[in-house]
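FAQ: What does the model actually see?

It sees only this:
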Amino acid sequence: MRTSMIVTTIAVIAGGSASALAAAPAAKPLAFTPPALTSIPKGKFGAEVKLGENIFRHTTVYAHGIIGDALNCSNCHLNAGALADSAPMWAAYTAYPAYRSKNKKVNNFGMRLQGCFRFSENGKVPKLDSQTIVALEAYSYFLATGAPTGAKLAGRGYPKLAAPPKPATYAAGEAVYKQNCSLCHEADGSGQYVRGQTVFPALWGSKSFNWGAGMGSIKNAAEFIHANMPYGVAGTLSVQQAWDVATYIDSQNRPQDPRFVKSVAETRKKFHDNKFSMYGKTVNGHVLGAQK
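And it is asked to produce this:
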């Protein structure tokens, strides 16, 4: 009662009403432009930032032995983590510490990076004080130079995508994939490599992210694809095509979820019980997640 009176009084003093105060629109995301990489400072800190950039761009080289697939961080965070609407690192850095429902605890930024290595990179989890994590933190900190801490920045994550006009299907997604994606990622989703280095990443199979990765969510994959793919001609796929091809890609075999417990059914129940995960579902006679 007392709290309600105080809120009403404040609103009246401000020249409005309690209902108007409650209905005030949320602040719009702030625009931000990261610094140019040519402005990386000299000295030991600059060297650490540069190492972080190299790890980010060439993860298969600079984090060899840590990652378990053939993906570079920059495969999902385009333009070396600087591109808006492609989960840019400058927007992620200023958003932590934050609670993550994935591990049900407050994570600092280093812990968030550890999660990427465990799931998206299907690898080992570097220690928080390891050179790998510290260098990636330094690089992300540099990209966020001048960004307000805790503020919602425009371009963070992937743009929200409307629901498809009609239910997405594997068959429709396969057609979209063949026409728009297979040239770079190959018909079997295995990606392309030059002298052992990843040019275009594997989208499924042993060299790709595992079932626990964020891209294992059809929703996340569709949002990324619609905003950023096909590479070089982003925005040419319709909402329906993005959902269809994301469904097709996420209906393929990939490395096991490292949180696996007892069985595929139990693991789905505990970690994948939602409409955007294909884990544990049967596609073409095969239970996804049950591969050896």
